[in-house]
Amino acid sequence: MFDDLVLLRSFVAIVECGSISAAARALRMTQPTLSRQLSALEQQCGAELLRRDTHRMSLTETGQRFLHDARAIIELADAAQQRLRLEQGGLQGNIRVFSTIDFGQTVVSRLISSFIHAHPGVTMELAYSNRPLHMIEEGCDVGIIAGALTDDRVVARSLGQIRRHVVASPGLVAAHRRCRRPEDLQEWPWVILSSATFGGTREVTLYRDGEESRLQVRPLLQSEGVTSLREAARMDLGVAALPTWLVEEDLVSGRLVRLLPKWEASTLPAHVVYPARRNLPLRARTFVDFALEYMSTVLTSHRR
Length: 304
Hints:
Elements: H1 5-17, H2 20-27, H3 31-45, E1 50-52, E2 57-59, H4 61-89, E3 93-99, H5 101-118, E4 122-128, H6 132-137, E5 142-146, E6 154-168, H7 170-174, E7 190-193, E8 203-208, E9 211-216, E10 219-223, H8 226-234, E11 240-243, H9 244-253, E12 257-258, E13 264-275, H10 282-300
Parallel strand pairs: 3-4, 3-5, 7-10
Antiparallel strand pairs: 1-2, 5-13, 6-11, 6-12, 6-13, 8-9, 8-13
């Protein structure tokens, strides 16, 4: 029935973008051209797929059913084409990835480098944002994020948990009474994350073998990024709960020391995310699988 996948892609783009004008911009074609393609598709179907008026656009019942089939056809065609490319010369093409800022500048950068080494035909773009859903809306293929996330617009697959140590500089430790119990840290100066998504709160919870201690702290500095908190901690400003992957070298060199080594701050979840309503190309799906395996190894190496 359909001899041109362009019509199906145009229909799906119109639905996902919410209007013909928005889809035309996304597809980089003129609005009249896209309107003609939609009309041609409806003529082939023999049914109206979209109801359009001056204020809004909505799918008909036929259009709703056809949308599912159109996506399936496109996904099969894309997968077949990319399998052929893979057989002929490995994965090809560009993948747009985003990550939360500090995680992306360290762990995710190493992940991407490892993936490109394994698939030299792939190029990648890495963007940073602590507001991940904006990046999905802007067309990124995959995200690697630290912190809590709940949204039905994305598929979120767990990469594991990020451990966090309670650390401070030797200078700060020397200036305060010896810390023997979590309650002793109640009056120490703190530097904390400002977003609850990434564990930021004025209540710090510490754990030890099933035991829990909650501290109400008064931060001198709040920041969206853990790297800035590490710098502040190095400068004797305050206590910080920082991820192991960020402070390992500081702990070895002695620039930072762990307070209450048997206690840890609450862990943070890590996820690989991608759009729930967009068909991922083979190269992006391969990257998701690679990330799941790679990150499980990295996070496992940071456990006790």
